[in-house]
Design brief:
By secondary structure, this protein is of the alpha+beta class. Helix content is about 30%, strand content about 30%. Strands 6-12-11-10-15-14-13 form a 7-stranded mixed sheet. Strand 1 and strand 2 form a beta hairpin. The chain starts with 7 loop residues before the first helix and ends in a 7-residue tail after the last helix.
Amino acid sequence: RGGGRAEPATYQLWSLLLSVTMLRAQRLVARVAQTAATRWPAQLRRLSAVPGTPEYEEEQAAEFSRSDEFYESEGVDRRYYFFVDSLGRLFGESTHPKGITTSIKSDKFLDFFFSQIRPNAREHAGADASIVSQYPWISPCGPEMNFVRAADTAVVFTELRESPGGGHELVYGGTLRTPMVPERLRMSPEGRLYHLLSGKRLGRDVPCLVRSSVALGVAEGIELSEEGAGGRQAGVVRWEGQTYPLLWLDEGEEARRRPQARCA
């Protein structure tokens, strides 16, 4: 109607709602970043990169994508490409910009996708090995093959919830969860926090990044050892009235954290 013009009142209302939502999101991000910069010990400030920090920007700058023609051609052969950021958000690799509004949000899709994640360790008929070997993980879906890169790990724990049976659970994907076990926490030399996850497809004892908002709560109970990186024990974790050793990632765990694709 009226030459296809939008209704002014409706347009203004949606514009106002969008502005308020974006402002709230920006304030939340700024608050988390400020907390990370002031409350965490210096060694723990890289537990997980936060939007707005140099670490996060460096990760995003390292991200790459290919031409639209590449993705269209690969789609014909049912090969698709995805990226997981350090907050655990999943994106189609060709998506730009990557942010809260463009990430994949369907719990059903995310649960299936992440339940199928595994190291990229097989040949892919018809695929360019020089390209698919750049993706450490895959997530098969019937005849489709999804290739996955990540800012850090393919699985990122995004929430910490109380378990109905007692204790706590770490959440990943959409609604997937695993028990939070303090003895299975690990720290990298860069000061990032991980929790080991085992799965039939993923593998045994794979270090998975703990998202910044989750790591913040755990970090309050972390005390680093004065010995530094010289020994296996990085420090201790005080959790629910108990004290547990906090270990550095060992060589095998580091290899499982960022596996080398073996698909050529």
